[in-house]
Design a protein that fits this description.
Elements (H helix, E strand, L loop, with lengths): L2 E6 L4 H15 L9 H17 L2 E8 L2 E12 L10 E10 L8 H15 L4 E4 L3 H9 L24
Parallel strand pairs: 4-5
Antiparallel strand pairs: 1-2, 2-3, 3-4
Helix pairs in contact: 1-2
């Protein structure tokens, strides 16, 4: 198998969407009979906006002419800090390999390509979320578990509590 990684462009939007929906269905265990049309619309708008502006870089992994995997990186800026003086960040996402091609280094190739894209833009803060299945791959590439992080549960309508 000869894997090549190629950048995806707006012209690839239909293929990007097909792979994104596949990833969402697998990661979130969404049954095929459940419609994701609203989510698909939002993702399409995201790609159209962010790929054009440079806020998202997507790629496909190919075996010859066949797409066998994908990945993306969101590029954004947070407030600069001692551990990230530029404030530039990269969030790897949508890393996925066709189940028939797993355990062949495809995911590793995609992640290394995405890391190179981020580093070529001067980004040193690169992170991701992972499943237990991907944890070993990411550790082998130098990622470490993050401490002291929390996520707000979607229970309350915080927009109702405006104040200074």
């Amino acid at each position: 198998m000869n894997v090549t990684i190629k950048k995806a462009y707006i012209e690839n939007i239909d293929e990007l969407m097909k792979w994104r929906i596949t990833v969402l269905r697998e990661v979130f265990s969404v049954p095929l009979e459940k419609s994701l049309s609203d989510l698909e619309k939002e993702n399409r708008e995201y790609y159209l906006s962010e790929i054009e502006s440079g806020g998202h870089i997507a790629c496909f992994a190919y075996d010859g002419d066949k797409i066998i995997g994908c990945g993306g990186v969101c590029i954004y800026r947070e407030m600069p800090s001692p551990d990230n003086p530029s404030g530039k960040c990269a969030y790897l996402m949508n890393i996925f390999t066709d189940p028939n091609y797993r355990k062949n280094g495809v995911g590793k190739d995609v992640v290394e390509w995405l890391i190179a894209q981020a580093k070529s833009r001067g980004i040193t803060k690169i992170y991701l979320e992972t499943s237990s299945a991907g944890r070993a791959l990411y550790r082998n590439l130098g990622f470490e578990d993050m401490r002291d992080m929390m996520k707000l549960k979607q229970r309350r309508n915080y927009a109702d509590h405006q104040g200074n």
